[in-house]
Specification:
Blueprint lengths: L2 H22 L14 H4 L2 H11 L7 H13 L2 H6 L1 H13 L8 H4 L6 H4 L3 H15 L10 H27 L1 H7 L2 H4 L11 H17 L3 H6 L1 H8 L6 E5 L7 H5 L22 H5 L5 E5 L19 H23 L24 H7 L5 H5 L5 E3 L12 E3 L12 H4 L11 H4 L6 E4 L5 H5 L5 H5 L5 E4 L7 E4 L9 H5 L7 E4 L11 H7 L33
């Protein structure tokens, strides 16, 4: 292995390790470390271009992604081959899936540059880039379908992390006799809280298909589908640092080993738009005639200068533009409809409760990268990726499923890890006033209202004291909601003893503003959102339990 290839592999492994370490650190409470946990999400060049266009604003938080594009003018697609965790994961998957028996011949394993997949297939990513950019110009956020950083973050957060958690739980369960024998109280009483996400099966299927294709065609995602790679390719037409050949015996080893099919038929020219500087070519060159080096001026490549054949034909561009506009039309109605007014009291959908600090829905959908960082950091696992509850435009965006986990009033981590600030970064005091909805009681099903059974679970657990109990003219006390004090945290819904719960959170009267002054906005709207350090005990007399009755909050069966 050459020095350059060894350096590249070391940096790639270190980059993937740093990405995974930052993702592992994306937990509540967030640790104080030298680098933001959303650092890699900010490096996404596709998001750095498309999201500000869709949002119609400058976003300083995405400047690192613009810096990656700027570096491509000098270093080519260095990011794809050396830094990107998506590429590193695909390389690792290909290595793991590689034939373990008789090794295949190199030329069969790597498609030749003249094959259909190597020449014509690469145009697909430019068409996808066209769709994304045109969608952004029309105000629709389509980035999350193709963003490599968002996709790989979702893969590790929604699939790998829950699998590790499940394996840890099984390990603790099956090893319990061992810890009892060793009298290790620490391991005997250790607990690992389960984590699960609604899109687990979808993520598994998507990456399973992607890795099978990666096994068949190296760097399948990077070569054919990644619009971020297409964006960097456009910036890599004539980089200063590139592959240079000073001695060639035309053995064909380099073109056969190139995973991106970026080496010309004469083996001395290089398609810098596709080259990711992996340096496999100089590792297999018997003449040691290949090196990657700088030049004061970009070297002219006679084969590829002024050659625009890599771009799709005009008809394909028009079709891609039409597809982008059509997909935008699907997304526009729920976003820019004149019926959607940004004001307290507006109900988006009956089940779409956004995280606290979420900006108004129009801008939220334009900004949200659907990376899953907010869901990964949520301590209760209540934040889940939406499927259809938020409409087509809100697929994979975060919604609070209170039955699964309530919003902890002492946690503001979701805003701290959002790379695009679709969820505003709020101090804890302001977050506690960032109302996300209102509790609604179904009095036809509530066991206190319907069956005259004493139940005060929602009253006892409400951290804002919004659930009150009244008994006037009734056999037992019943819960009522003081809407002015309700934050919408969901503790009442999570712990309601009835299934399905008879008290639910709806996004009515949610505060969705662009500033961090949520407490002032709450007072202006007439809300009194204060954490109750100690909830008053139930002031009403409880009737004595009769034979066969259950304590409050308990139901038979």
């Amino acid at each position: 292995m050459t020095t350059g290839k060894l350096l590249r592999r070391a940096l790639q492994i270190l980059s993937l390790a740093l990405f995974l370490w930052l993702l592992w650190k994306t937990v509540f409470p967030l640790p104080e470390i030298f680098i933001p946990v959303d650092f890699y999400l900010r490096l996404d060049p596709l998001a750095a271009v498309a999201i500000p266009v869709a949002e119609r604003t400058f976003m300083a938080c995405l400047l690192p992604g613009l810096a990656i594009i700027g570096l491509a003018f000098f270093l080519g697609r260095f990011f794809c081959g050396w830094i990107c965790p998506m590429g590193a994961t695909m390389d690792a998957a290909r290595t793991a899936l590689r034939w373990t028996g008789k090794r295949r011949k190199t030329k069969k394993f790597f498609p030749s540059p003249s094959s259909f997949s190597a020449v014509k297939g690469i145009k697909t990513k430019y068409l996808l880039l066209t769709i994304v950019i045109l969608g952004a110009i029309w105000g629709a956020n389509l980035i999350f379908w193709f963003s490599p950083m968002a996709l790989i973050t979702r893969f590790y957060s929604f699939f790998i992390h829950p699998v590790i958690i499940s394996l840890s739980r099984y390990f603790l369960e099956f090893s319990r006799p061992l810890w009892e024998y060793l009298q290790s109280s620490t391991m005997l009483y250790a607990q690992v809280l389960p984590r699960s996400y609604d899109t687990f099966a979808f993520i598994l299927l998507f990456f399973l298909i992607l890795m099978v294709m990666e096994h068949k065609i190296p760097r399948f995602w990077c070569r054919f589908l990644c619009p971020a790679g297409a964006l960097l390719a456009l910036a890599s037409l004539r980089p200063l640092w590139k592959r240079r050949v000073h001695a060639c015996i035309h053995c064909g080893n380099c073109s056969a080993a190139c995973p991106m099919a970026s080496i010309g038929k004469d083996e001395t020219t290089t398609n810098t738009r596709e080259c990711i500087a992996c340096q496999r070519c100089n590792g297999v060159c018997p003449a040691r005639g290949i090196k990657f080096s700088f030049a004061l001026r970009p070297a002219k490549d006679k084969q590829h200068d002024n050659d625009l054949s890599f771009l799709p034909a005009r008809r394909s561009f028009l079709l891609a533009g039409g597809a982008g506009m059509a997909w935008t039309a699907v997304n526009i109605p729920p976003v820019y409809s004149p019926f959607l007014q940004q004001k307290p009291g507006f109900l988006w959908t009956p089940s779409c409760v956004r995280p606290p600090g979420s900006i108004p829905e129009t801008d939220f959908l334009a900004r949200c990268l659907r990376c899953g960082a907010c869901m990964k950091v949520c301590p209760s696992n209540g934040l889940q990726p939406a499927l259809v509850s938020a409409g087509i435009a809100g697929v994979f965006s975060p919604v609070l499923i209170s039955r699964k986990g309530a919003c902890d009033p002492n946690c503001n981590a979701c805003g701290l890890v959002c790379p695009t600030q679709a969820i505003t970064r709020l101090p804890l005091e302001e977050k506690q006033a960032a109302r996300i909805g209102t509790a609604i009681i179904d009095k036809n099903e509530c066991i206190a209202w319907k069956e005259n059974k004493s139940c005060v679970v929602c009253h006892e657990l409400c951290p804002y004291g919004a659930v009150i109990v009244v008994q006037e003219g009734r056999e037992v006390a019943v819960p009522e909601i003081n809407e002015a004090r309700c934050f919408g945290c969901g503790y009442c819904e999570q712990h309601c003893p009835v299934d399905p719960p008879t008290i639910v959170i709806e996004p009515t009267n949610a505060l969705r503003i662009h500033t961090t002054r949520y407490r002032d906005a709450a007072r202006k709207a007439g809300f009194s959102l204060e954490i109750q350090e100690k909830i008053d005990t139930w002031p009403l007399e409880m009737p004595p339990l009769q034979e066969g009755d259950l304590p409050p909050g308990f139901t038979a069966g």
